[in-house]
Specification:
By secondary structure, the chain is α/β, with parallel strands linked by helices. It contains 9 helices and 9 strands. Strands 1, 2, 3, 4, 5, 6, 7, 8 and 9 form a 9-stranded parallel β-sheet that branches. The chain binds pyridoxal-5'-phosphate. The site of pyridoxal-5'-phosphate (PLP) has 14 residues, from strand 9 and helix 9.
Length: 229
């Protein structure tokens, strides 16, 4: 068995263990393989090990890799989307996870309308003080924007995404995930008919905490493919 296959198996084992400890069904937690910067050969190795969901952060790289993957695999965009890359993104990803402004949502909606499709997205919320992090910052701004985004006909909001701060203090990481979960629950209350099912939280270093805090999708890169240079 390849190392990548072993790594994936190992993560599924940890998902099952962690879910068990907090009384969740492991089937409610999906694993995304974050393959940014990694060569196609590694994605195909993961595919052969059963992986069907990949995450990429650069639009052009992702579109190129999409062409090389078998048709039953999906790529989702997890990196910040610049408005000049919107056209290339819409329709090329099963989900755009990193929608972090009203402006970018409008652009996605316009392009999806042009193509005659409905684009699935997640809304990225900023749950950390770190300057570099993207995402809607502040609940007021988020809830103002979400109102207009929910009404867009060529966008389907599937849930929320967040990135925890890169710190050692587990309490701070946990706080970030639980804040995202609360905003997710509130959004579901306000829009009970919206198909909100995805809470995308947790990376290699913190996915156990994310599972404990309710993540339904974890995004794991280096623990599957090794560290990035
Ligand atoms: C790179 C990246 C990941 C995966 O990070 P690892 O620490 O390698 O698991 C997850 N989510 C986002 C948004 C990323 O950019």
């Amino acid at each position: 068995m390849s190392t990548i296959a072993e790594n994936i198996q190992n993560i599924y084992r940890i998902i099952a263990e962690t879910a068990g400890k907090c009384g969740r069904n492991p089937k409610d937690i999906s694993l995304m393989a974050v393959s940014k910067t990694k060569p196609m050969s590694m994605l195909l190795e993961a595919y052969d090990a059963g992986m069907r969901l990949f995450g990429e952060n650069r639009v052009q790289e992702a579109v190129d890799k999409r062409k090389e993957l078998p048709a039953d695999a999906e790529i989702q965009l997890i990196g910040h989307l610049q408005s000049n890359k919107t056209k290339l993104s819409v329709g090329n990803f099963s989900c755009i996870q990193s929608v972090d402004s009203l402006k970018i949502a409008r652009k996605i909606n316009d392009q999806a309308l042009t193509l005659g499709i409905v684009q699935d997205i997640l809304l990225e919320v900023k749950t950390s003080e770190e300057e570099a992090k993207s995402g809607f910052s502040g609940e007021a701004l988020y809830f103002d924007s979400v109102k207009e985004i929910m009404a867009m006909e060529n966008i389907q909001v599937k849930g929320l995404m967040t990135i925890a701060p890169f710190v050692d203090d587990e309490k701070i990481i946990r706080q970030s995930f639980s804040q995202c979960r609360l905003i997710f629950e509130k959004t579901k209350e306000i829009y009970p008919h919206a198909p909100l099912s995805v809470l995308s939280m947790g990376m290699s270093g913190d996915y156990r905490i994310a599972i404990e805090e309710g993540a339904t999708l974890i995004r794991v890169g280096s623990s599957i493919f090794g560290t990035r240079s």
